[in-house]
Write a structure and sequence with these properties.
The structure is a homodimer of 424-residue chains. Helices cover 33% and strands 25% of the residues of chain A. Chain A is α/β, with parallel strands linked by helices and 424 residues long. Chain A has a domain of 173 residues: Carbamate kinase (3-Layer(aba) Sandwich), CATH 3.40.1160.10. In chain A, strands 3-6-2-1-9-11-12-10 form an 8-stranded mixed β-sheet, with helices on both faces.
Chain lengths: 424, 424
């Protein structure tokens, strides 16, 4: 008998009929001989409606109260789901994050899970019950206040709970049937990826693929927990996220590139004319860290010998831009940089693939494809299994399609054609 | 510095603008030098909307899950109210029933409060914060499951919390400015009652007056806690419910009759031809108790000597009628009664007043007034400070008005004119 943790997102439980359908799916998993624990998000637009109510009473609601408010969303969906399962003749119990033992720090709105002590969940499972757990929420260790985990929080709840329970798999249900080689809305010939490594899934998530959130994959990797990303609208296999997707016994040969991700949610700031001295870059990024801004790509060129000055560019979430610019202006005289440039009309396109480690020429093929498509590259950043470029925002679609085609991800045959080049 | 517990019902927090108005009122109480703890119900129609959702997924939802669902209602209103107060520059913290230490038994849907351990509320108050507590909800002592207190639950939460905190007063805010001598929709000249005893308020509540619930007054009486029933739309004094409203120092002379209550929510069942033997009535009411039916009035006449049989009539909530009739039919052969009569076109009219203890002739005046108004009396029941009659449902308004007039409750002068009679 396997222990399966299933996570259903807001669109899977958007209304009563959706909830009844999900209930049937859960019962089918139970009937197939599994123990089942379910993590559920708030129904459809509930969170937005609650945020709207909050804005009506206060322009800047305290984080503690906002968390108290928002967590009512999962409370509604989980109770309804438990009722729908009971109506199918199976016993179900719903639990808040606090009841499920999801212990977090006290950072309201984006709390981090410190520990999961799911004794009540285990008791319910041992009693043959289906446990329904509120995603996205926990209780703070210090003050016992209700917290929320921020974006992608329900996925993180599911994986953390699955790890704490020693589950065999964490199934993440969504409205598509897995992770694709590119966004199918941009590349119509994009293919579903049957198996992918944690590292690749993390790079995809970090580079804008919306299916899985970075924190949830990080958590799964730490505990070696398999994630199965599936559609709640079909029963076909989705994408398995595992530590070694191409180990013996799997039929699929490792591709060079697993997928092409893109992200339009960032902006670019360039700090112009930074004196090329020890500690200047550190001062800049310490200032940004103190303002709680997450930096993504950073590029610094060699300084011009004539001036002894260099330019530092970085990308960041567009919503954090004003805070960052304000913070940087405050240290302009201290650091003695010349000026700030700001551009929010950018997009990031990333190639992700563990296979690029052993294949030279990926960069050359990628850049060649972009050049042939007339796309200008503004910034470049690489990791061991990823190459990202920043391009103009209106060139993102063209760049994604060109890269997807260049690495033959369109075709059924998973083998990249790599043209010469100096390797990387 | 006084500690004031205030309770606001669903209509007082129906939307964002209502919540902001209530927040101002709370802040004004705080600014006047009081410590303030607030108990709040769910917004307007929230509970009905949640019940509707529940019905869409299950015809008979489990009580535990229904409680989990419904308690999201207060979670929303209390968080919004805390935000609105914060927006006025005062620190407010919201707490669930569980966080506020409202410990109940495990009877989902109508749990009883076993204990209140409000250490977190006291900490908040001691820190100068305004504590906002979810009404209507608690946590069960045994299973740590979320429970609801049933009808009037928020009032009970407020009084129980006020008692546990040793508050100086529990203010119950509603949409009228206190308890009236009769329902002003029926008797336009009905007057607000400035002070009333716990006993009278309990009889009024038990007899259909909707303002205060029986359980909440019971609780207040047990702890000697003053209740102040007020309008959330005005600042004038409402009705004070206290142990001795006519003690020295109060200017108001004790009236004979405090008010006339009515109730259209009951039905009448008559068990016809019950053998007049020891234990037959007990068998009937044991059966009804096992079916968890609350009986109100019971009338049994002396048995007819010729037959050795008697009729037993009782009233009960109209919603419980089918259950009661089914249960009684099952014991018809055992008890050997002849038949069952059922009437749901009844209404109950009650005179309540501690003063009737020392004034003879109240019954005669009451019955005389009903006779003059052409109202036929079907059943009579009395307590030390109450006389209730059952009349035809379409005669309730006439009976209430006639009684109100007969005891001069219409006029400003609070003195009843009692005509002769044998006294009671």
């Amino acid at each position: 008998m396997a222990l399966v943790v299933q996570k259903y997102g807001g669109s899977s439980v958007a209304d009563a009929s959706c909830i009844k359908r999900v209930a049937q799916r859960i019962v089918a998993t139970k009937k197939a001989g599994n123990d089942v624990v379910v993590v559920v998000s708030a129904m459809g637009d509930t969170t937005d409606e609650l945020l709207d109510l909050a804005r009506q009473v206060s322009p800047l609601p305290p984080g503690r109260e906002l968390d108290m408010l928002l967590t009512s969303g999962e409370r509604i969906s989980m109770a309804l789901l438990a009722m729908a399962i009971a109506n199918l003749g199976h016993e179900a119990r719903s639990f808040t994050g606090s009841q499920a033992g999801v212990i977090t720090d006290s950072t309201h709105g984006k709390a981090r899970i410190i520990d999961v002590t799911p004794s009540r969940i285990r008791e319910a499972v041992d009693a043959g019950q289906i446990a329904i757990v509120a995603g996205f929420q926990g209780v703070s260790q210090d003050s016992k206040d209700i917290t929320t985990l921020g974006r992608g929080g329900s996925d993180t709840t599911a994986v953390a709970l699955a790890a704490a329970l020693g589950a065999d798999v964490c199934e993440i249900y969504t409205d598509v049937d897995g992770i694709y080689t590119a966004d199918p809305r941009i590349v119509r010939s994009a293919r579903q990826i049957p198996r992918i490594s944690y590292d690749e899934a993390m790079e995809m998530a970090a580079c804008g693929a919306k299916i899985l959130h970075l924190r949830c994959v990080e958590y799964a990797r730490r505990f070696g927990l398999p994630i199965h990303v599936r559609s709640s609208f079909s029963t076909r296999e989705g994408t398995w996220v595992v530590s070694d997707p191409y180990s013996e016994g799997t039929e699929v040969e490792q591709p060079i590139i697993s997928g092409v991700a893109h992200d339009r949610s960032e902006a670019k700031i360039t700090v112009v004319g930074v004196p090329d001295k020890v500690g200047e870059a550190a001062a800049i990024f310490r200032t940004l860290a103190d303002a709680e801004i997450n930096i993504d790509m950073i590029v610094q060129n060699v300084s011009a010998a004539a001036t002894g000055r260099t330019d530092i560019s970085f990308t960041l979430p567009v919503n954090d831009s004003q805070t960052a610019l304000t913070a940087l202006k405050k240290i302009q005289s201290q650091v003695a940089f010349e000026s700030l440039l700001y551009d929010d009309q950018i997009g990031k396109v990333s190639l992700v693939g563990a296979g690029m480690r052993s294949h030279p020429g990926v960069t050359a093929t990628f850049f060649g494809a972009l050049a042939d498509a007339g796309v200008n590259i503004e910034m470049i950043s690489t990791s061991e299994i990823r190459i990202s470029v920043v391009v103009g925002q209106n060139e993102v679609d063209t760049a994604v399609a060109a890269a997807h085609r260049a690495f033959d991800l369109d075709s059924d045959q998973v083998e990249a054609v790599v043209y010469g080049g100096t390797g990387r």
